Batch of 4 targets.
Target 1
Amino acid sequence: MNAPTAMPIIPLIPENAPFNAEQRAWLSGFLAGALALDNAGVTALSPGDAPAMAAAGEEDEAPWHDPAMPIDERMTLAEGKPLARRMMAAMAQQDCGQCGSDCATYSKAIAEQAEERLNLCAPGGKETARMLKKLIEESGGGATSPEERAAKPAPVEKNGAPGYSRTAPVEASFVARRRLNGEGSEKITNHIEIDLGASGLAYEVGDSLGVFAQNDPALVDAVLAAIDAPADFPIGGRALRDVLIEDVSLGTAPDMLFQFISYLTGGSRRLCAQALSRGEDPDGDAASLDVLGALEKFAPLRPDPEAFVESLEPLQPRLYSISSSPRAHAGRVTLTIDTVRYRIGQRDRHGVASTWFADRLPEGSPLRIYVQKAHGFSLPPSNETPIIMVGPGTGVAPFRAFLQERLAQKAAGGAWLFFGHQREASDFFYREELEGFTAAGALTRLSTAWSRDGEQKVYVQDRMREAGAELWAWLDRGAHFYICGDAKRMARDVEQTLCDIAAEHGGLASDAAKAFIAGLKKSGRYQADVY
């Protein structure tokens, strides 16, 4: 066997890296810990390890905290870890707050049997819920007694203050919607205004708003027809139609529904339903089956309406990044929402909350909301600190709030926004406001990218590369870096671009550049709000 080839020793963080002496010392230690020394030299971590290690925290030094990583890869990396760590790896790894907490807290609660709900990880969806169930079964766990659960209240329900928990929403009023796209846009994106009224809610920039939306009545009527049930069938003292509109999810068909359907059918249809309940895909259409699609696939069915409702999952609240500052909009909160519409087969599908806001919610209507406090997504403590914001599309929402806040505080640190979309003429959200921020000095630099305006697609990461030297200079001044938007593609590309800029303009080797990004995250200078 040939002797291992010695690898070059990775240099420590150079003097021109944008850190003070204390931060540089910490990063040097981080690099030493991120590299395993042996007699042959230094073995580098695999790609993505260093950023993931910092993002996951000291207790969780493993590279599975990556929203772009497939679940099977995350589970492989988590093999041999404690149950709570493996459950965390099963989640979508966005710390988005949709569950009411964060990935680590939610997974710990499930592992300790303080939380029975396995479907709160909305980004992870059905595959996360299935994996959590599998992990519980493999560990010999299961439901504890009500007394035991009462002794360990679920962390997602810890904050029961009205208006600050998904379990304790308050009433507000829908004020208005305004379409942000111009003529010729392929999108429908609305600016939404909500009056907090007497709710007493207070929020800060960086927070999200949880909204309890309602299902489309037309979809509900189609479901009622599919199960051949009367709209006024009593369910717990309420009409079945109202329960289907307000309480249960009619999106992706849950495993329990397929299991229920298997009891109502026979032969090959039963085998097919059983296979779908186990996560298999016998006909190649599992990904397209919502509740109505499942009912139509196995029609005709006439289930007991109450049993049918019990086979469905609760309708989850939707979280949206708040796009306003309370300093600029006292007593109000605004959102920036893409309307989700697409077609599968012969049916149009609609996003629940996005089309509710766009089409079905009359102005002045009451709605239930709550504030989800930000998990590590906030402005720097000092107004003298520069900020760099990357938010294409609706990702600009929290940065509109940031700029309103910085304008009100007369922040002098400088602000740079990278914004992109399809077409400048029709998709330049908040253009007049952003130009106003520039004129007032709250926005120092605005870099835009339009993917459909020319023969070559241009994205925010392309603009970052073009301005790499200046971007590195801003980091050298201590700038905080923020990103908001799609977790699986855009956010990963932006992080890689920043890593490349650190290598090219900071003179860092590849692994040192990754550790540099990890250091930014560890110190709170790199913050993400991704979905």
Target 2
Amino acid sequence: MGQLYLSLRLAAAFICGLSMAATAQLEPATALRAPATPLIAHDPYFSIWSNSDRLTDGPTRHWTGTAQQLNGIVRVDQKNYRYLGDSDRSIPALDETHREITPTRTIVTLQSPEIELRVTFLTPAFPDDLRVMARPITYLTWDVKSRDGQPHQVEIYLDADGAIATNTSGESVAWSRAEIEGLHLLRVGTTAQPILQQYGDNVRINWGYFYMAVPQSPASTELAAGNQSYRSHFTASGHLPADDDLAQPRPPQSRYPAAPSLNIVLPLGQVGPTAVSRHILLGYDDLYSVEYMQQRLLPYWRKEFPSFTALLKGAEADYLALNKRAEAYDAELQQDLARTGGPEYAAIATLAFRQAIAAHKLVKDANDVPFFMPKENFSNGSISTVDVLYPSAPMFLFLNPKLVEAQLEPVMRYAQAGHWKFPFAPHDLGVYPLANGQLYGGGETSEEDQMPVEESGDMILMVAAMTHAQGNTDFAARYWPLLTQWAEYLLDKGFDPENQLSTDDFAGHLAHNTNLSIKAIEALAAYSQLAAKLGDSKAAAKYDAAAKSMAAKWGPLAADSSHYRLAFDKANTWSQKYNLVWDNILSLKMFPAAIAEQEVAFYKTHINTYGLPLDNRATYTKLDWTIWSATLARNPADFEALVHPIFQFLNKTTDRVPMTDWYDTVSAREVGFQARSVVGGVYIKALADPALWKKWANRGK
């Protein structure tokens, strides 16, 4: 077996004009074994991962765990080797020697005695460029060269299972091939096309079409809209059958004539010591992406392109430029993350990058206003959950605050439109992909299982942080009556919360929650800060005084010898006070610095092998909140002491799924949740560096 790790490239990148050229001086890699490796990661439906130590150790899977297989074979002088997938284990696998995960790319190097093959999955999801980030296109590139100094005849093969376009294996699919200017196309999709009819948590898309697009060039190409038996034809002859499979439609699990798949062969000819490169585009046209208040919304890329044909052509034209841009972007971001939090922190944040984005869908309303709407993956499937937006927000506050505005806009419109009757902020907008109104906790009719202090505090803090990053109050001014209503609620109910849920709802209801009280106090201080920026000095003074009064009471009531309690009325308890992080980041200064210092010192004495528990009630933790708590530390050594066990958890967990945020700190096992957007919260450390935050946030402007 080859060495397998997530390589952290600490590089000095220099962006030069529009070319985005970069040079890099590489330092030793920080070894992080990703529990799952992103290959295609765009949105909750178009999201394919490798969950194995090597690309050839298992099938590629949707983030939910359902197989959505991509199978790759390279033929070298009539000998076959697998480089992707394990559908035919009678074919030997190439030796995987290196795996590198950067923010936008997964690069895997494999070899046989004759050749070296480098496979690169590029998803150019640049948060500072919504135009490009919104494109549901991943570029798959092969670079092949001789290892032994001799020329070798090489053919690259890839097939894609028709299950990529289905929710369940019993749904019939149809396939076709086509030609557009510059590209050969293969396409597969269900025959039923139930657009936006399927909703829930453990589901996959069953409408729209998956595409494989191969650039037309002097180099030869073979394509077939066929079936998995065509793979055997290739391994025997190096070619595909001349005919497409016409026995359609049929479901992906069909055994006769075989399961449907899309197949391509790229003959490279004689390959010597100079690498030969070919690439294709993998894309998904979902037609309509979400439904918002009974209106079907188009994906945001439709703002730039009138059709998927135009998108494919534009994406192919941008291939070389986006490759160069990705190299520069990745090197600079990883270097800055390492500088602010250390190499292990940078490796964690790098792994979180595509996952956090791919748990969202970027769509547009009728006026082209962007909505950035997350799915609460393997939690309850909710869409635009406020207490999921809140922990994910740091990444988008850091890399482009416009995306936080796009997260908040649909929530604000819903709360303002009259459907929502309560004096506090809503929890969600429905169940993905149907955002037609809150369903959680009794929906729009019951107050029993709501999160009133949680969601109201979340919304005010996110608006305040976004306003700080953007340098204008336009959004806050537009929704000021709502923000004022929620601030008034916190003024009345926030200091000593009643028996209610918080974002950590898996732990159940809790009265007198001290961490939730901190959130209310920080939110009131943030509201005062917003009022001052809007010129309302009277409101600013009122809420500043109220927040300071509450903060002064909080310490004596929450104190418990060497730390602060889980709940005001529960002695000998403790919890992570992650909400305190805003006191420094937004310069609110409500609490004495000694409180954070005392908490961090206490945390260091309660760290288990794989992390700091969330509180005294259980040994599980939340990965995102632990990074927030670590950010309370005043010195790098304390920060790294809390981060290192998370790094070890990711290295050691036997749960091979896209990064979970809820796991046990003793066993390193997933408790629940995976592939969620909340891992974007690890970027909170970057927000604690004002100059670095300003540098990256300004790119979004």
Target 3
Amino acid sequence: MSGRLTLARTYARLGAGSIARVGAYRMGLKSGRHPVQRLTAPVAQPPFFRTVDLPNPKAEPNRMWDDGLWWFGWRRAPLPDGPPDWFANPFSGAVQPDATCDWWRIPDFGAGDIKGVWELSRMNWVVAWATTAACGDARALERLNVWLADWACRNPPYKGPNWKCGQEASIRVMHLVAAAWVLGRDQTPEPGLVNLIRAHVQRIAPTISYAMGQQNNHGTSEAAAMFIGGSFLVGHDTRADRWARSGRRWLEERAATLIAPDGSFSQYSVTYHRVMLDTFALAEAWRRHRNLPRFSARLMGRMAAATDWLWTMTDTETGDAPNIGANDGARLLQLTSADDRDFRPSVQLAAALFRGVDAFGPGSWNRPLSWLGVPRGRPGGMASSQSFDQGGYHVLRHAATMAVLRYPRFRFRPSQADALHLDLWHNGLNLLRDAGTYSYNAGTTEWFSGTAAHNTIEFDNRDQMPRLGRFLFGEWLKAEDVELSSGHGVTANASAGYTDAMGARHHRAIALSAFGLTCVDKMSGPFEVACLRWRLAPGEWHVKDNVVGNGTSSIEIELDGRPVRPTLGTTSESRYYLQKNEIPEVSVTVSRPAKLVTKVTF
């Protein structure tokens, strides 16, 4: 099929409304006539927060930022004596844009991955220092005011890279309001904070249509910022109520459009699902705090299902979850010092708000609830095997073991060619794992989002779908022969398959028990070579007598009923954004239609 026809078919799948919104935004910026380009606002002046009258330690504070700066939850630098360089990128040696340029003139990737610049300006430190200041730490409060004053001065509205993205502005709004809330100052805010939040909401409002056109968490984040920021500004700006109503309307619309009734989210990503869930959780907690009108039953139902989705994906012992789908390191509302790959604080907060249950019992994951005044709810039991067919996920669980099979149900554009990828967890260890994302910068995103970076079959050294752009695949796959998760005694089963645009077919069936996992892969159709890959947990793995083992687990592979000796090598993994490590990988290559059976024993 020609490239032009593939592109046309893909754009048709994206939807005329979304394309029109994105096109109108880009044309408006190019012409210089977009309303966002005519905005003006004064530089906000300190103070932003005033002294806490009496310490109010509702929970243990988050002290992660007390002595260091953090990027994406893993890269750390010592805390400087004064405010940091808001335009520095510790991951890139390239010259970075500064605040002398209009934000719309700055490219996303002209000087390396701009997310390295944006990270400190997401103001996770504001939330963390608010918790320590609320516990009586006067130095944290002073540092908050000094750093915010420096940020406002060096990032004047609407200049420089930190004003470029409406979602980045939205994250700042949510964090600034949350900090005021933690400090008990959201009802009587300082003029400096009011002006800073006003400048941000004013930036978000004119481009929110573009955010909706992207059909992802940009829309949910910006809607939440409009709702939360607008209602925060009521009494301080005549536009505030209109902004809040617009945000509420878009939150309702996004919940209905992007979240399926089974809880699956449009981005097909575990970490982006968390971003979305945290966003709605903060909006609902804020609504309760301010005693605002309830959200609709439909929104609350979708969020309850979205909570169940992430809860089912989360490993109870470690709080980690499969690294499936795009992962840019985003994490909202750092009211606890938990690792970025601990999903329990998000699930616990959402479960209390949208299910009225306590997902995990006592633990540090309850601190966000304490800071926001959300009761824990009744005991919620354990996550069990479930298929989320509207998003394309089988989740099989048996005691401390979990298997997740990803299959293609694409109502929205896929971000990775990961059809029939399989994740396996046992006693908190991610035995079979996804490669992650690493970076959105050119030259790195292609491999990590491609088929070779997943635990699946790769035909003829190509992706399962043709790549049309940095974030766009064509010829979206369709699932075939799907059998939803089911339990037969001590074994849970599920399966799915697909046929790609070249006619190659892959069908995968899995069975999970307390003792291990069996995966049956059938390949057929026209192809010259097919490669099965299993990406393994770090450790000492060896091949002996056709068996791959690490002392506690073993992997055996059969080709059409006969044992086959796999190749043991290494490959790349990125568990955190812009972090890359080497891990073991086993692979088997065939040159004809065949059946491969993989047996993993614990």
Target 4
Amino acid sequence: MVALSVAVATMALCVIPQWRGTFFYYMGDQHEYFLPLWHHFGEQLRGGNWPTMDPDGWMGGNYAAEALTGIWNPVNLVNFVVVSFFNNLSLAAFTVTIGVLGLLALATFLLAREYGAARMPSAVVATALPVSGFTLWYEASGWPAGLMAFTWVAHFWWAAHRHSRGLLNPFVPFVFGFLAMTTGYPYAPLGLIIVLVAIAVELVARRELSRLAHLTVMGGCVGAVGLLVFLPLLGTVDVTSRQQLAQIANDTFFVPDLGDLAAGSSPTYLPAILHWNGSLLEQVPSTYCAWFVTPLLPWLQWRSLRARLRSLTSLSVVAGGYLTATLGPSNLWLFRWPLRLIEYFYLAALVLFAVALSAGLATDQVRRRAIASAAIVLAGTYLAWTVEPQHYNRIHLAGLVLTAALLAIGLVVYFRRGRCALGIVLIAGTASVVTLQTSVFPQTTAADPPVYPAYDIARLKADTKDYQGTVLQLASLTGVTTEQMRSGEIMFGNLPRAAGLVTIGSYTAMLGFAKFADALCMDYRGATCPQAFDRLWQPADHETNVPLVDAMRVSTLVLQRSLLPDVAVRTPPPGWRVADRDDVRTVWLRDRPLLDEGRVSWSSSGIDVLTDSAQPQREVVRYHSAEEAGRILFARLDWPGYRATLDGHSITVVNGPAGLVTVEVPRGEHVLTLEFHSPGLQLGFLALGACTAVAVLQTAVWVTVRRRRR
């Protein structure tokens, strides 16, 4: 009940950012990628479909290979359905996110208790971690996959450590490891590995080899789950732009330093970290940890930890490992931006703090300790001021006064009422600091003036009701206003998918299908360059005498006037007409929109397509060619995994113009079947079944041995 109360209290605490800024939990990738796609997934699930590939999503439609979609995570599936009932995506984001933050608080509380912390110190750190800088301002605000991965890794850590002490069967940590792995976030398997290594070191130090064997088997089962999640990505990455990021380098992007960590208890400290658009100064407190940690260090009874050093071995290994990684280079293979790891270090540091606080505060040398605490608070404020001495002076002063007052109140009530009263003050102080931070550092976009995202799905559908067939938008992010976004005049990322549109521009975590992205100069969010318009009307390649716009079966063309000022006012080519024209966009519509289900967009001269039946992962074409062999072109991106058969016999699939699927076919009348199977998916399912069976068997053995020993 205490643990659940901590989770509920944290959820209530996390309402403050939403109260201070309506769109706090709906920024960045949250509105460009996750929430619109989750809404689309939820509608698909409610309709009985569970897509792993959707060619209508184009660069963002290879859902199994995206990994980050988390389509194998059962908790995610519930979230998809929940989100699909919301018309307001911002409210849906808030609802889902505070639930995950509550689960994170629960995991932190249990983990602190697992390492021997008392209830009140555990509750103090459990309510502080979810509203720490990076977790609240980046993960909760815009990167929900990272937040979910962090949450499930924390639960796995608790369960795995408890299992290593013989108090929990191995199936529970396996389930949490499965949930962490299936988020698809690459830092989840990294966290699982670090936790397993740390606990293994502790078991070796305690010479408990039988429990180490159990931990190894359980960890191997969790690792096998990763085959289902990441094999499709690894089998697809060669045709994407993501492979260009696999390197070891340091461009200083999102790389914190020791000074940023030292100021982790200053509520108004904004780190000098290179981030988007070349900015050198943060606008949000991304390295903030908890306001009370460093000011209370002089009061902790560190000697109380000496007798518990061996039991804290794994905690120390995790803390040391993540501290090293947090201060590392910006790129280590596919792992980028070490600031993303700071929350894992803070989790370990706060648990260690809770264990130390459980011994109570020191009562001797009160004056010296008070002076040390005051010096720490002043030093944190000074560091915050030195980053931007020309701004935020009043805010830094307010942070100083608030922290000093809370610290003084906490110490007074501790000496008069004890540890429980101190805990209440610390939790109340956390709420006060969150209110201050979200009031003076409002979460906004990088644009000036700020552009707030679209969230009303009904309005988006109403304003795009005249769109037909496949939609292609030629637009850039430059100059887009809030009203243009919310009215649906200009949309990027996956918002068109939530609005029910079939759109070529979408968000892809793999940064795009390289050949297709080059043909349209389209980025991972669907933004294009001005040259894309001319390329649309040119032949797809020297062998395919059809314009690219026809090869993609585009029926609605949205032209941003600021990007294409001359094109937007001209008369469309034959076969097209102007459906709408205003100061923001011009919409061209085919005289005869391509609305049939088939995706064949062109065939060689002499080839007649008799029937074309298409599903997301399968298409059957019956054709007749009286003269000679030729080619059939499909409006599908040639992701690795496509296979073609002709009358049941395998034939070759060719990577055609702009990366579209092309099949060379012989003369005569035949049935061509095109099917898609995500690479590695079958092996992944076999691995999942095998590791689940092993985990169940291991649990049965564990329970049997435990009963015999009793």
